[in-house]
Write a structure and sequence with these properties.
Length: about 425
Amino acid sequence: LKSSTLVQRAAILSEYSFGGIMSTENTSKVTAIRERQNWYIHLCYTKKDFNECLKVIEEQLRVSNGQCEYPLYIKALILRQTGRIEESLTTFQAALILNPQNVNNLKQVGRSLYLLGKHKTALDVFEEAERISRDDREIWHNKGMCYLYLKQYDRAIECFNNANSIQRHEATFSQMGRVYRLMGNEEEALKVYMDALETSPENPEILTTLGLLYLKLGNNTKAFEFLGNSLTYDPKNPKTILAAGSIIQDNQDMDVALVKYRIAATQTPNSAQLWNNIGMCFFGKGKLVASVACLKRAVYLSPFEWIISFNLGVVHLSTGQFASAFHYFSTAINLQPTYARAYMYLAVALSRLDDFENSCAAYEKAVELGPDYLTHLNYSITLQRNDERERAKEQFDIFEELFESVSAEGGEIDPDILQQSELMKRAFE
C-alpha cells in the first residue's frame, strides 16, 4: 500500500482518537461502531432484500465515515448483481484500500474487471491475489477464464488443472472442456466431461453437454443415453429436449419428437432451432403447409441461420414452387457457401426453371466442394433431360461408384434413389 494511502487512513482514524493516540479501549469502541450492523446487513443480503440492505449500509457508512469494510463489500456485490458493474468495481476497490490483505476483496476486484472485459488487468489482480493465497481454487479458476478470453488456451488449461488439483469443481471441468472444444480436440473434451461426471453424476448440464458432444461425434446411441439421463433430473430443459427430439426425429419417429418439442415450446417459445425442427417434423409427416408456417416463424426469429433457409428451400422444392425454392437456396448459400447440397438443390430448382446453363454451373460447384453420390445422380438426370447423353453417362458412372461404396458400408439408402438409378440404367441401355 502506498504511504500516502496510509496517511489518509491515519487521518480518518484520528477522528476516533484522543489527542492523536488511540487506546486499546477506544480502538475496540471504533470497531464496535463499524461492525454493529454487520449481522443485519448479512441477514438482508441472504434474504435478497436489497433495498433494506442498501439502506442499512448507507447509514452505517455515514456513521463510520465510510470506514466499514464489510458494508462496502456487500454493497459492491449488490451493485454487481443489479448490473452496475463499474460502480461495484469502485466500491470493491474502496474495501480493498481498507484491508489490502483480504484476498476476497482482491478476487472481487478481479471478477468485476473480468466482467467489464478487462481481462489483462483482471489477470494482474488475480496474480496479486495468488501471492497472498496460493491454494485458492477460485483464483486459479478465474485466471483460467481470463486466459480463455485472451485465447491463450494452453495456459487456461494449466490454470484449470491447478484449480482442480486444489478442489475438483464442475464449473472448472465445464470450462476446461469448453477450451478443448475451442481447440478442436473433441476427444480430450469428452474425457474432461466424463471426469466431471464422477464429481457430479446427477448434474443435468454436464449430462446434456456429453450428449451433445457424442451427437457431434456421430455416436447417436451414446448421445441419446446421456440426454435421457439428463431429462431424468431436469425434464423441462429445452436444450436437452431439442437434442433428444432431433435424434428421435432422425429415427423417423415424428410423433414422439413432436411431443418432446411441445414441452420445449412452453419453455422457449422464441427458439428458432425449435421451430426449425418442428417444421421438419411436419415435413416428414407430409404436412407441408404446417411445415412452411413453422419454418417461416423460425426464419423470422433467426434470419441469418442458414439451415432454416435451406430447409425452406427443400420444402418449396417438394411442393413444386421452384422460384421460391431458388430464393431460399440462394439465401442459404450466401450464409453458408461451403455446403455442397445447397448447390445441388439450387441446381435442381434451376433445372426445373429451365435454366440449364446455370444449373450445370451449380452442379459443378457442388461436385467441387466434395463427392456426393446424390449430386452426381441428379446431375446425370438433368443432363439426360437436356439431351447431353454422354455427359449424363459419365456422371451416372461416378454415381454408381460412390453409391456402391456407401452400400458396402451399410448406410441407409432412400428407396427413391434406388428407383431413379434403375430408371437411369434403363435409359442408358
